[in-house]
């Protein structure tokens, strides 16, 4: 019944939408149970008020008995106080349950995205994840919240039915048979609403993903003249989403109308029958007053029940989306019994390419095809499976967390996040200010910090959009240097900077990483010339090794690759 990959061992193993909602409810059993109990007390106290009023009319007013009138008046007051107190506490529990369910969903969603890691964007659209955190959490929270009022309404309707059956079997049967009939009529609207909401939610996720793609690639689109085409497609998809929304609204409007019309018609029917029974002397005046009170009261629980059907449907649709994300499994998982890794640096070997990284050495890798260098970096960091060993131990035999602690791969797909720049450069707050400043110097990024009004305390906007491409690249390099991993793999860390800045970075990088294992994947002569050891890769295999000047003289293919870089 449990599974651990999603980050919480208590999530149901089959991860169905219904079981997920039950799991959320069970996270705080005391408050969830208290909310239901208080909801029952709250509604039953209201259901008993018409009975107290009816007894006050019959025993007090009809028989002119002041004591009986005071007694039933006190009972009515007590029921009012009980209803008020229970209602306040129920609302308090309901708000807690709403927030707990919504934000617990955020936690498991973030845990699932972290677990998927680099495979996330290949397995699910970004818009899907965003929609879970913006729209779905509200529906899931509301589904948990409505249970208290829904349970109270069911018990209250049952209580009223028992009282009416005791007083008048026909009227009692009207309630006993009429309420299920009303709920059945509402249920006829639930299924199409469920279907339309699912279609709308799918369209919303696709449109959000498209909007994200357009925004992130806006400069490129404008450069190649593709903005009008993508804008037209976005408008067409937006109108399709609007049409889906109108279909959902059409069904929802019918449901809202049913919430008013059906209980209202039910009240009219019971009141009319009660009046006829009173005229025939089958019930007393007090009972007629009580019956009218019951019918007026029944509007509230019946609306609660139709609202519960609506919100539980929405919550089920939203939970299905969350479960779909939780069902995704990462491409790389920990072995059942992770191997132990010796402490300290060791040889890092990529068997497939023949690359051997010696500990403590500044190595550069030049590949005739950039994708070969990226593939090797992914294997070294265990972002892709491969025959890679550290200290002679295969990386696939190690826990992924252990690999991440020992080997850091920094490429140009990494993002800058919103927040203070210092926290962005040192997210774990593990380095002192001197280490951060030294990393900025090595990455030739001090001018970026100096340009900010608050320096390291300045805030970074989303994805660092206030910085140029070269500035973002230098800040990412500084962040990798601050982390100071045992083995650092840099993929094209200077591709977006000018030649003067690149020369400064190449000159300082070796000193900043002295004594630590470093691999730089690049074809820049400025960086290659500063490396202690250069490896040349062609067709995914190491074909030559040595110093930069040696390879230029002895390996024509290497010289051709580097020359292309110089020509650019």
Automatic annotation (TrEMBL):
Lipid bilayer topology: Multi-pass membrane protein
Domain ABC transporter residue range list: 249-564
ATP-binding listed as a keyword: yes
Pfam family of the protein (one): ABC_membrane
Localization of this protein: Cell membrane
ABC transmembrane type-1 domain span: 35-314
Primary location recorded for the protein, binned into one broad class: membrane
TM regions (residue ranges): 29-49, 69-89, 146-165, 171-190, 260-279
Annotated Gene3D superfamilies: ABC transporter type 1, transmembrane domain, P-loop containing nucleotide triphosphate hydrolases
Keyword tags: ATP-binding, Membrane, Nucleotide-binding, Transmembrane, Transmembrane helix
Molecular function per GO: ATP binding
UniProt protein name: ABC transporter ATP-binding protein
Record organism: Micromonospora sicca
């Amino acid at each position: 019944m449990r599974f651990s990959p999603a980050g919480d061992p208590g999530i149901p193993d089959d991860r169905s939408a219904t079981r997920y909602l039950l799991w959320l409810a069970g996270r705080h059993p005391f408050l969830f149970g208290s909310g239901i109990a208080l909801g029952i007390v709250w509604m039953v106290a209201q259901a008993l008020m018409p009975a107290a009023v009816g007894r006050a009319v019959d025993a007090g007013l009809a028989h002119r008995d002041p004591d009986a009138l005071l007694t039933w008046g006190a009972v009515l007051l007590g029921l009012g106080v009980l209803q008020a107190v229970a209602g306040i506490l129920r609302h308090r529990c309901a708000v807690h349950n709403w927030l707990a369910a919504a934000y617990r969903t955020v936690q498991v969603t973030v845990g699932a995205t972290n677990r998927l890691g680099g495979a996330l964007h290949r397995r699910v659209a970004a818009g899907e994840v965003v929609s879970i955190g913006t729209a779905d959490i509200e529906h899931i929270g509301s589904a948990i919240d409505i249970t208290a009022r829904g349970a109270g309404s069911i018990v209250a309707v049952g209580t009223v039915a028992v009282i009416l059956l005791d007083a008048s079997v026909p009227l009692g049967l009207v309630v006993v048979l009429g309420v299920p009939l009303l709920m059945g009529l509402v249920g006829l609207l639930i299924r199409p609403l469920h279907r339309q909401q699912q279609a709308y939610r799918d369209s919303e996720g696709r449109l959000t993903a498209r909007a994200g793609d357009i925004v992130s690639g806006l400069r490129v689109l404008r450069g190649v003249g593709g903005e009008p085409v993508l804008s037209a497609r976005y408008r067409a998809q937006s109108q399709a989403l609007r049409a889906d929304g109108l279909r959902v609204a059409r069904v929802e409007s019918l449901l809202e109308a049913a919430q008013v019309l059906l209980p209202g018609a039910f009240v009219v029917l019971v009141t009319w029958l009660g009046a006829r029974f009173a005229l025939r002397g089958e019930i007393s005046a007090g009972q007629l007053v009580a019956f009218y009170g019951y019918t007026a009261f029944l509007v509230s629980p019946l609306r609660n029940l139709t609202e519960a059907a609506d919100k539980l449907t929405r919550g089920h649709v939203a939970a299905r989306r969350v479960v779909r994300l939780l069902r995704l499994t990462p491409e790389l998982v920990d072995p059942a019994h992770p191997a132990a890794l010796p402490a300290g640096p060791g040889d890092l070997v990529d068997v497939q390419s023949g690359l051997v990284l010696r500990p403590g050495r500044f190595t550069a890798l030049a590949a005739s095809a950039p994708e070969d260098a990226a593939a090797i970096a992914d294997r070294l960091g265990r972002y892709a499976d491969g025959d890679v060993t550290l200290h002679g131990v295969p990386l696939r035999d190690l826990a992924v967390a252990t690999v991440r602690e020992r080997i850091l791969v920094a490429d140009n797909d990494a993002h800058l996040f919103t927040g203070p720049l210092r926290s962005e450069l040192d997210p774990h707050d593990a380095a002192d200010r001197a280490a951060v400043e030294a990393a900025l110097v090595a990455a030739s990024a001090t001018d970026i910090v100096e340009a900010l009004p608050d320096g390291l305390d300045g805030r970074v906007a989303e994805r660092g959009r206030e910085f140029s491409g070269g500035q973002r690249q230098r800040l990412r390099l500084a962040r990798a240097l601050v982390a100071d991993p045992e083995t650092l793999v840099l993929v094209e860390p200077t591709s977006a900077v000018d030649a003067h800045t690149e020369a400064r970075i190449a000159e300082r990088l070796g000193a900043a990483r002295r004594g630590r294992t470093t691999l730089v994947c690049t074809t820049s002569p400025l960086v290659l010339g500063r490396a202690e050891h250069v490896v040349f890769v062609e067709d995914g295999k190491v074909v030559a090794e040595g110093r930069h000047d040696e390879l230029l003289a002895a390996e024509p293919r290497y010289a051709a690759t580097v020359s292309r870089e110089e020509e650019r």
